[in-house]
Amino acid sequence: MTIIRAEESKDYPAVRDLNRLAFGGEVEADLVDRLRRDGIVIASLVAVENEEIVGHILFSELPIETDHGYYTAASLAPMCVHPKRQRQGIGSALVRQGLEICRKRGHTIGVVVGYPDYYPRFGFSAELAKKLHGPFSGESWMAVELKKGALDNVEGTARYPSAFGDFEHLD
Predict the structure, then answer these.
(1) What is the separation of C-alpha 76 from the centre of its chain, rounded to a whole number of angstroms?
(2) How does pLDDT run across 15-62, given as a tens digit for each residue?
(3) For strand 141-145 and strand 41-49, is the pairing parallel, antiparallel, or unpaired?
(4) Which is higher by pLDDT, 169 or 132?
(5) H/E element holding 13?
(6) Which CATH superfamily includes the segment(s) 3-170?
C-alpha cells in the first residue's frame, strides 16, 4: 500500500537519492535542496511503500509579474517516481494530492514544464499558459486553474527564482 505524506527532514537523503536515480543526475536533486534552502516550498510530498520512499513531488512559489502587480503561482518541479514503480499511479496520486494542498493553501494558479501527454489529465493546459511569458513556451509549458477563472485576466511574466538557475537562454 502506498502512503502519501508531507516530506520530513529525515526524508531528505532518500528524496535526494530518488531524484538522482529517476533523473540520472544531480540537477533535480540540487534543485530540491535549493528550493528548500530558499524557503519557497509550498508543498513537498513523498510516496512511501514498506517504509521506502518511492515517489516525490515538490511545489514552490513562482511569481508572475503583471501590469497589475504580482500573482504567486505554484510551480510543480520536480516530480519523480522510482523507475521500478512507474506507471502504477504513484505519480498521479502525488500530483492530485499536491494540487489539492496548493489549493487549500490559497494558491489559484499552477504551472508545470512537463509531458503534454501526461499533465492535461490534471487540468494543465498549454492554452492556459499562453499569456504567461518566461523562459518556456510550447506544448510543455502548461498552467492549471486551481480556482475557476483564476487566469481569466492574468497576463504576465513568470519570474523563476534563482534556485532554478538561469533559464533566460531558453526563450
Answers:
(1) 1
(2) 999 999 999 999 999 999 999 999 999 999 999 999 999 999 999 999
(3) unpaired
(4) 132
(5) helix 12-23
(6) Gcn5-related N-acetyltransferase (GNAT) (3.40.630.30)
